[in-house]
Amino acid sequence: FRMVDVIEKKRNGEVLTKEEITFFVNGYTVGSIPDYQASAFLMAIYFKGMTAEEQGFLTMAMVESGDQIDLSAIEGIKVDKHSTGGVGDTTTLILVPLVAACGVPVAKMSGRGLGHTGGTLDKLEAIEGFHIELTEEQFVKQVNDLKLAVIGQSGNLTPADKKLYSLRDVTATVDSIPLIASSIMSKKIAAGADAIVLDVKTGDGAFMKTEADARALAHSMVAIGKQVGRNTMAVISDMSQPLGFAIGNSLEVIEAVETLKGNGPEDLTELCLVLGSKMIVAGEKATSVEEAREMLKAVITDGSALELFGKLIEAQGGNGAIIHDTSLLPTAKYQIEVPALSSGYVTKMEADDIGVAAMLLGAGRATKDDEIDLAVGIVLTKKIGDAVQEGEPLAIIHSNTEAVEQSMTLIQKHITIGKEAVESPRLIGDMIT
Ligand code: URA
Ligand code: CA
Fold it and tell me: Which stretches make up the Pyrimidine nucleoside phosphorylase C-terminal domain (predicted)?
């Protein structure tokens, strides 16, 4: 092939063959196709789209560009979960022990990423001593012994995606549904999952701002999974307001512990039960989501999910005592109330801007070399629909400096207080299978 012909074909809106797509991915990964041709090609995809079949070919070419984790030595169906990201999304920390306690092996590979808070790895590292470097052998053994492990992404997982994602970032081609879907799915497939449960967020704090876009992304990812033989399903969930109350690394570990004890925020708990039920059915430990839901509630009530979280922490070098005493986690020097400026009802809570307020405190990274302050963040005291009196706290800022003016102003500005009560937004939208 000549790359110029492949670009022209996509520019004209034609459907590419597996060979043409693989030619591009391999050529770009090794450097024989230059950035300028790859850029033009990505832009052609941005405007002309890709069929489900083309997306499957693109995904598999990226999977095959690097290492693939072999989880076949782990008994049972390995079920992975992926969330498209949002503000204060603590679900992974909760779901890993929750689902494992019901007998489904969870071999989780997680990322750090940029954003309002760290990723799952950063959150776990708020626990003193916790390390995320296991060899593939140790990883497999730990999952066989304990049913759960969480590690960092291996260096050579989907190098094609890494390179393409960086290029997309500077060529205005990130927000293309076929490119996002294949990027996310390539990493899940390379990480070895047999079944994948996707949590596609929608709303102000999400990548996909509208439910229609979230649904389209979910359909694309489910179609890719099916095409390559992985049982894949998606749940659309609300991210118009932050999930749960805590936004911050150490603060979210505390929230996860509380949720595993059955004292978690209502929305976070419900989303974990919905996603967890799907994971258990996919892992064939229950035949219906109703049965799975009862199993999940039981391992919360009898304490076994929390206990397993403690075992995970101990197995990876951390202090498991934090599950009984969360004051052992990093704590910020100052706890500062954010007072409401008027009385009424919370009608809007812009997740994105509240996330920025957390990032300004040091809870997240703006660039990949930024240091995170694991102790800081925001704990909301109100959610959409709640009544509030002037002067009452909307949130508590946890900070290591007293200069929190900027974050405080952002929070006050982006939590709208109206005169009329409103319904809280619907947490769970469509399910796509
Ligand atoms: N997250 C990913 O991993 N890839 C994308 O393309 C977008 C979000
Ligand atoms: Ca949260």
Answer: 345-418
Task: Give the HSE-up count for residue 344: Cα atoms under 13 Å, Cβ half-sphere.
Answer: 15
Question: Is 82 labeled as catalytic in the residue annotation?
Answer: yes
Nearest CA to ligand 1 atom 2: 184
Output the six-digit token pair for 71.
């989880």
| CB of 246 closer than 6 angstroms to any ligand 1 atom | no
Of 54, 56, 57, 32, the residue nearest 45 (C-alpha):
54
* Pairing verdict, β 344-349 and 246-248: unpaired
The pTM of this model reads 0.95
* Strands of 281-362, DSSP E: 334-339, 344-349
Instruction: Give the model confidence (pLDDT) of 336-365 as tens digits.
Output: 999 999 999 999 999 999 999 999 999 988
CA–centroid distance, residue 323 to ligand 2 (Å): 17
Amino acid letter, 3: M
Report whether 193 contacts 80 (CB < 8 A).
yes
Residues 78, 45: Cα–Cα separation, whole Å: 32
- Of 279, 277, 281, nearest to 296 (Cα)? 277
161 carries an active-site annotation? yes
Helix, strand, coil tally for the chain in percent (to 5): 45, 15, 40
- Ligand 1 atom closest to 179 (CA): 6
